[in-house]
Specification:
Elements lengths: L1 E2 L2 H12 L4 E4 L1 E2 L13 E4 L2 E3 L2 E2 L9 E3 L2 E3 L2 E3 L3 E2 L2 E3 L2 E3 L2 E8 L7 E3 L2 E6 L9 E13 L2 E11 L5 E2 L1
Parallel strand pairs: 1-3, 2-4, 4-7, 5-8, 6-9, 7-11, 8-12, 9-13, 10-13, 12-14, 13-15, 14-16, 15-16
Antiparallel strand pairs: 16-17, 17-18
């Protein structure tokens, strides 16, 4: 896994944007400052994101994340729709004031994460697990708004096992 510098990341994004596709695979993206970087339609696969902060200035619409390890990251008011976040591992992350519209989370695991005012009701959640997570006003399904701590798992058919 290669360590990517801030300068290299920005140059890579700029160059690849002209090609209509950005692919960051097998990269250590720790300590990157994502503020204001357009991540629409960006592919990040088999990489590590650590200590990152994503805010309303960033958009993850149409992105593809596959097999990434996301540790101690914050996602606050991030726009995310029609995206694929597949078989990723989120650990000790925080998500706040977000709606995941038509986002495929299949195979993703959230461990010791915090969710505040998050709407997952329109996400695809096949074999998704929440372990030791805290929820405040979080909509896990259309009919299930939850506040508290707990472990949840969505089955192979996408139904929530409570």
């Amino acid at each position: 896994m290669r360590k990517i510098s801030q300068k290299d990341l920005e140059a890579n994004l700029l160059a690849q944007a002209r090609e209509n596709g950005i692919d960051l695979s097998d990269a250590d993206l720790s300590d990157i400052v994502w503020h204001g970087i357009d991540l629409n339609a960006v592919t990040i696969a088999l990489s590590v994101l650590r200590n990152a902060r994503f805010s309303a200035m960033e958009s993850l619409n149409g992105c593809t994340w596959i097999g990434n390890k996301i540790e101690s990251c914050t996602f606050e008011s991030v726009s995310i729709s029609k995206a694929e976040i597949l078989q990723c591992e989120f650990e000790a992350c925080a998500m706040q004031a977000m709606r995941l519209f038509r986002v495929d989370l299949s195979g993703t695991i959230f461990t010791s994460c915090r969710f505040i005012d998050v709407d997952l009701s329109e996400a695809v959640a096949i074999r998704v697990r929440f372990e030791n997570c805290n929820f405040t006003n979080t909509r896990l399904t259309k009919d299930f708004l939850f506040t508290g701590a707990g472990d949840f798992e969505f089955s192979a058919d996408g139904t929530l096992d409570i």
